[in-house]
Design a protein that fits this description.
It is a single chain. By secondary structure, the protein is mainly alpha-helical. It contains 3 helices and no strands. It is globular, with a radius of gyration of 16 Å. The two termini are 26 Å apart.
């Protein structure tokens, strides 16, 4: 089985135990505080492109969403099934 670690955190900025050494944003809830919306979306889009690249490389055409966190305002303001249909 293969595994990958896709992260925005530069591995050169980790200590010997693997902890990240800099204070950086970690979630959508920090948009407007620690990160601009445009930078947040740029990073999230890069994650999606990485997933697409892995899928293309392994000829995978189906993804299952498991344990989706329902914490964003967009999800809470919609019916979950309406949001999920846009995935």
């Amino acid at each position: 089985m293969n595994s990958w670690r896709v992260t925005k955190y530069n591995p050169l900025h980790r200590n010997t135990e693997g902890s990240y050494l800099y204070d950086d944003w970690t979630s959508f809830h920090e948009v407007g505080n620690k990160v601009s919306l445009s930078n947040y979306l740029r990073i999230e889009e890069a994650y999606i492109h990485a997933i697409e690249a892995f899928m293309n490389d392994m000829n995978i055409n189906t993804v299952y969403v498991h344990a989706l966190e329902l914490s964003s305002n967009e999800i809470q303001n919609q019916h979950v099934s309406d949001f999920a249909s846009n995935l």
